[in-house]
Structure formats: C-alpha cells, structure tokens
Amino acid sequence: xxxxxxxxxxxxxxxxxxxxxxxxxxxxxxxxxxxxxxxxxxxxxxxxxxxxxxxxxxxxxxxxxxxxxxxxxxxxxxxxxxxxxxxxxxxxxxxxxxxxxxxxxxxxxxxxxxxxxxxxxxxxxxxxxxxxxxxxxxxxxxxxxxxxxxxxxxxxxxxxxxxxxxxxxxxxxxxxxxxxxxxxxxxxxxxxxxxxxxxxxxxxxxxxxxxxxxxxxxxxxxxxxxxxxxxxxxxxxxxxxxxxxxxxxxxxxxxxxxxxxxxxxxxxxxxxxxxxxxxxxxxxxxxxxxxxxxxxxxxxxxxxxxxxxxxxxxxxxxxxxxxxxxxxxxxxx
Length: 333
Description:
Order of helices and strands: EHEHEEEHEHEHEHEHEHHHHHHHHH
Radius of gyration: 19 Å
Number of strands: 10
Strand content: 5-15%
Helix content: 40-55%
C-alpha cells in the first residue's frame, strides 16, 4: 500500500500527511477549498492551521475529492460531524480494497453513532481502521516521539497499515477493539472542556486531578455498555489521550473550557477559532447515550448543560459539588 490520501487539511490532517510521506508513500492532502490547496502547493506549509511547519517534499494538495479517493489508504481527518457527508461524496470514487482509517474523534450528534458505525452505514464493503491516541499535531509534524492505537479487525491489513504510516517517532500499536479505540477519544474531548473550566476558573490542581480520575470512570462505564475492553480504555486511546488533553492549553477543548471558566461567552470564543472544537458536539451525544443506557456521566452532562443547555459555569460546578458522597467504586462524581 503506497498511495495515501489524507481527507482534511487541518492541523492533524497535515501532520498525518507528513508522517505518511516520511514513510515513503505517495501522499495527497485534500482540502475542500481550491485556494487553500493552491497555497499549500505553492508555499509548502499550512499557514492557516499548522504555521511554521514545512510540508515534507512530495505531498500534493488537492481540492478534487474524486482524485483524492483514488488511494490504497484513506486517512479520514475531517471533523466527526462531517464524516457521513464527505464519505457519501467519496463513495463513487472508492475501490472496495481502499482501507478507510478514521482519525478524527467524536460521536455523531444527530444519531449518537460511533464513527465506525457511520462509516459502515455509508461504505460497508471497505476495510475499516481507527487511529487514536495522545497526539498533538504540531509535535507529530515536528517528528517528536509519539504513539497511537490502531484498531482493525483484520490483522494482516493492520500490519500493512503499520508499515505504511509507522515511523520510529510515530508508533502505532495494534488492537482489534474498534469500539474501545473510539470511546476514549470521544469522551476525553468533553472531559478536557471540564478540566479547562477548572483551570480558567482557578479551582486548583486537586480539582483537575479529581475530574480526570472520575472522568476516566465515566469513560469505563460507557465503554462497558458499548462493548469496549477495559484494557483498551486504559491504553493510549483512552487514559493516554485523556491525560494529554486534560493537561495542556494546546488542546482546543481544554482552551475552550479555560475561556469559559474565565467568564468568556461561548459564541464569542467560537468566532475567534478556525478549527472545530469537537467536544461541543460530542457532549450532547454522550449524554443521550448515558440516558439511553441508564449510566451516570455527571461530568460530561455538566459540560453539556454549559455548552448546550444555557447553564452558567458556576451553577454547573455547584451542582457537581452538591452530589451525595458515595463509595469510590460506585457510579457518579
């Protein structure tokens, strides 16, 4: 497998294009905007999303989706809420052998479906993999060491994928737990907003550590209901990603929460951003799943109330702190 197309030319898509090209593949980087594609090819850097990081020579940017669909491996790096629409457009261009690798993290807001389910809805015949882990795009693009979970049911295809996109500084670890590889990455976006609120509101490092720990319990509860394995959730795509995203202002979700904690208005924050903050959309989907399966996810639902329910940050924090004391092994915050 040598022809790799990256669908989505944001920071993460650009970083993965650099990884794939360093691995010796023919790489196309798709963006929906022709002027963006022209700028990428001309300037050899992605000034809009990943400034001051040079593109590896040989990466070709395109806005032609059908052209990008002609690939052995398709890395899907568009926001989760756009995956169904993009794949529907791509489907006529795809060969059945093309491996679809989902690299964005989230749950479809309208349906509550995981990205693997969305992909199988649209392109049921193509091999499917999930790439997820504690990875900041700028560090990956710069060649700093990192690792990720690569989930796929077909071991042979998985090993070929590792050969194609694995580097000494970018280490994919194989698993067949496709569901588990998605749960941590989706839920941690919401929990990172909560940790950002703690930081912005100056509630202390003790509070952030408590949120990370109790948030991990929420990930485990949802994962159990959806059929994920606990060891996957405690691995790179779960605990690893949670710790990274809940600890750094470089995270879009954390920085959004920090701004909310400082008293900024959500709409005004989003007006200043070019990249999608996925936790906003995933929060409501997670809370509907929690209600469906009758499981307690109070931190995620407090974030949803702030983002989508018009509840003040101070009120959501007070509601969490007013919850009854309980055994640590039991559900809830």
